[in-house]
Design goal:
It is built from 5 helices and no strands. With 179 residues, it is mostly helical. The chain has one domain. The radius of gyration is 36 Å and the shape is elongated.
Length: 179
């Protein structure tokens, strides 16, 4: 059985992959590139899912380090997703990066990293509390018997069945006839 922290790591990876794919596609669309279509969409999803899987394997060290790691993973997923969209779907214009665009992506990555870290912590807390509540709140007293015991008429086989010749198959060792 897996622990709540192990299941929370899977939640972290799914959120990193899903949020980075959504944010990358949204930024690409807002930037004039249009919605990803054709081979660009599966490539974007594959890149973001891979980054999410890598993020789920990173061990927890501390709250600040986790947020920094998640923000780095989200930034990397956005960058790799944008490269995948440029390569597969053509680019929406000149390759320019403004400081405001980079700041917006970094800010979004930090906010998402904080939200993902808090949701992971809340998931572990809620599953731990629910586990303890199940242990305490479930009635484990022995079941009460509602019917009283009454004797049952036990069927005894008739005596003729006992003398039906199903005894030993060998002849008797001593016979009264003197054999």
């Amino acid at each position: 059985m897996s622990s709540p922290a192990a299941r929370a790591k899977l939640l972290r990876g799914a959120l990193v992959g899903g949020c980075s794919a959504l944010l990358t596609a949204l930024a690409h669309t807002v930037g004039g590139g249009g919605l990803p279509a054709g081979a660009a969409l599966p490539t974007l999803l594959l890149v973001c899912a891979t980054v999410g899987a890598v993020a789920s394997r990173v061990p927890r060290t501390g709250r600040r380090a986790d947020v920094a790691t998640l923000a780095t993973a989200l930034c990397a997923a956005q960058l790799l997703g944008h490269v995948a969209l440029v390569v597969d779907g053509g680019h929406h214009g000149a390759v320019t990066t403004s400081g405001s665009m980079l700041a917006a992506h970094a800010g979004a990555a930090i906010v998402l990293a904080l939200l993902i870290s808090v949701s992971e912590w809340l998931y572990v807390l809620a599953s731990s509390v629910s586990t303890w509540l199940r242990l305490v709140a479930v009635d484990r007293s022995p079941a009460r018997v509602t019917q009283s015991w009454q004797p049952v008429d036990v069927g005894v086989p008739p005596v003729r069945w006992w003398r039906s010749g199903l005894g030993m198959r060998a002849p008797p060792a001593w016979s009264p006839l003197g054999a």
